[in-house]
Each structure stands twice: as structure tokens, then as C-alpha cells.
């Protein structure tokens, strides 16, 4: 997808990450068969791992990241826990998920789950 990725160079975090990101849109990027298959697989898994009283009518865009060479990186770091503030939980309630290797976290990143990534430190 040449030309569609947005470089992070010039941003305040360029010294930490210099990858490129792209928000994949199934309606626009319908020619990307393999990426569509991955997204559908992740959606299928997510829909079966959680017990929710409704199904989604549509899905949002998926974020893709590219490390194009020339020293592109995301520096080794410690921390960066995911903190969720579910909208259906009592006010002030939050849940933390520590970043462990080989773990996959799937969650709705919309108004149902306001979230943040806690600060990291370099190793």
C-alpha cells in the first residue's frame, strides 16, 4: 500500500517510534484480501470470547503498522499497561492488563471501553 502509510517522523515521539501507520478501511481497501481475512478472523475470535447481549452491525477501521527499514523502530521498553474504564462499571472503576509476551488482548476500543496506555520506561 505505498503512499498510504503515515510516517511518525517529526512527531514528539519520533525518538521512540519511527514506524508508519495506516487505518485500514474495508470499504476503501477491498483489494487487500489477506488483510481482510486477518481482520475477519480476529473479529470472529473476539465475538466468541466474550458474552455480549448484542452483535456489531459494522466494524471500525483496523490500524496497521509498517517498519519500512532505514532504522524504523519502536524502542524496547518496560511498562505500557493497558488500563480500561468500562462504561458499564461503577464510576472510578478501572482494570489493568500488564503487557506480557505472547498475549493477545482484544477489546472494544469505543465508548464502551474508554482506555489509556500507561507510561513506559526504556530498558
Describe the structure.
Keywords: Vitamin C. It comes from Romanomermis culicivorax. GO terms for molecular function: ferrous iron binding; L-ascorbic acid binding; peptidyl-proline dioxygenase activity. This is Prolyl 4-hydroxylase alpha subunit Fe(2+) 2OG dioxygenase domain-containing protein. The protein is flat, with a radius of gyration of 17 Å. The protein has 123 residues and is of the alpha+beta class. The relative contact order is 0.18. The model has no long low-confidence stretch (mean pLDDT 73). It has two domains: 1-74, no CATH class; 76-123. A three-stranded antiparallel beta sheet has the order 1-2-3, with no helix packed on it. Strands 6-5-7 form a three-stranded antiparallel beta sheet, with no helix packed on it. Strands 4-8 form a two-stranded antiparallel sheet. It has one helix spanning 33-49; strands spanning 6-7, 20-24, 62-66, 77-79, 82-84, 95-97, 115-117, 120-122. The protein starts with 5 loop residues before the first strand and ends with a strand.
Features:
123 residues, alpha+beta, 3-stranded antiparallel β-sheet, flat
SSE blueprint and pairings:
Blueprint: E1 6-7, E2 20-24, H1 33-49, E3 62-66, E4 77-79, E5 82-84, E6 95-97, E7 115-117, E8 120-122
Antiparallel strand pairs: 1-2, 2-3, 4-8, 5-6, 5-7
Keywords: Vitamin C
GO molecular function, one term: L-ascorbic acid binding
Protein name: Prolyl 4-hydroxylase alpha subunit Fe(2+) 2OG dioxygenase domain-containing protein
Amino acid at each position: 500500500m505505498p503512499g498510504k502509510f503515515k510516517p511518525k517522523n517529526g512527531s514528539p515521539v519520533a525518538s521512540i517510534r519511527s514506524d508508519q501507520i495506516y487505518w485500514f478501511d474495508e470499504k476503501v481497501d477491498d483489494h487487500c484480501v489477506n488483510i481482510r481475512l486477518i481482520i475477519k478472523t480476529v473479529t470472529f475470535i473476539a465475538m466468541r470470547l466474550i458474552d455480549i447481549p448484542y452483535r456489531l452491525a459494522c466494524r471500525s477501521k483496523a490500524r496497521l503498522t509498517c517498519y519500512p527499514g532505514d532504522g524504523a523502530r519502536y524502542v524496547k521498553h518496560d511498562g505500557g499497561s493497558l488500563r480500561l474504564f468500562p462504561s458499564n462499571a461503577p464510576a472510578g472503576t478501572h482494570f489493568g492488563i500488564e503487557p506480557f509476551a505472547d498475549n493477545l488482548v482484544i477489546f472494544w476500543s469505543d465508548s464502551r471501553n474508554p482506555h489509556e496506555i500507561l507510561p513506559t520506561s526504556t530498558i
